[in-house]
Amino acid sequence: MSFRKIAVGIVILAFCLAVAAIYLMGPRRGVLEIDGVGRNYASARRNRNGSEVTSDVNGFWKSISTPEGLRREGKVRLSKLREQKPEDRTESEIMIAIELGAGEDFEAIWGLVDSSDFDADAKYRLLSYLCTSFPAKVGFEVVLNKVVGLRESGAWKNQLISATFRGARDSVSTMLSNASKLEYSDERTAALKGISWRIHAIPIGDIDFSGFAKINSREETKIVGEALGERIRNADRDQKTGEFDATLSGLRQLINDGKADQSILGDFLSAAADTSPLDAWRAWRAMVNERDIQNADSSSNLPKCLVDGLVKIGGAVAMENLMVPELSARPADAKLSGLAFYRWLAKDMNGATAWLGGGDISGLQADYVFQATVQYNMEHEQFDAAKEWALRIGDTKIRDATMKVLAAREANGGKEK
Hints:
The chain is mainly alpha-helical. It is 70% helix and 0% strand. It has helices spanning 3-25, 37-44, 57-63, 67-83, 91-99, 106-115, 120-133, 135-138, 140-148, 155-167, 172-180, 185-201, 218-231, 240-256, 263-275, 277-290, 294-297, 302-313, 315-322, 331-347, 349-358, 363-379, 383-390, 396-411.
């Protein structure tokens, strides 16, 4: 046998092995991946034993070469699925029918899935796909009514409600209105999660507050405010400030029009403190100066969120923004300097101590920075160093209170009582 014949034989054998591997591995996937009609079609054309039913792949591709052909093929497959017994239908065959255009007949495909003899996971996957994909095609309320009417209840149903709101292309106001009409509180909460997702997905530059209706409950206010703040993350660096200012302006207009409570500003800034820290801090500073924030959520953790956002940028940046005269008069504002410095010590002790050693700070803000240093040293059982910093506190009440805590901590072996 010549070398040429041997080489040809090896090539043919390799090709046959590759075809066999594709044949054996492709159709036996347990979970369908929606990544191409061709693969799914080839999979569905095999019966449950893995044997080939037909090999007319070229004819198939020709039949779906136009949108009309796709829809026609989808309807044919949907008709065949209807004729099957519920226990004989497969998840992949239904999904392929949807991909090929049968999904336009939403009522029929929903009924087919709901009546098929699938396990809970398979049924959830199919219904979740319908909930996410079809509100924009057949109408948000059409899909929502189907979900609400399901026999199942609990977490499974709530996830489908959330998926339906994620898939909607309606206005935020329309979605909030529909969410408020849901009978059960857990369903309303699920809907709000979906609305939050939709707000995140609004393209940068496209936010429009003119069509907003009144935001009624505290839960709705929190969801909308936080989602708008988190959405700033999607903006490019040079877009963040502009998008932040536009959103803040829109929220102020909602408040002025009586469509939102003042607390939505606090929710927005709390989230924006992580996505656009300097902008959030700048806005909060203006509100404090104007006293706009008094009714916005003054009892919340908003100032701490803002400080954490600044420290993430850098400790020196945080202290530069905090150690200013405007924040030195009120104890609540001055304490923020101590909080920021403690966070900086925990994150970068060397950098924080270098800043403290090289700076000339005084007043109430300095006292809270020294107190934070005492706290950090106590937690690391450095009691001598803690005492030295405690004695540098100028305000008598703050110094005495700090010394009392220090003495109790040292007497208790370094542990907090």
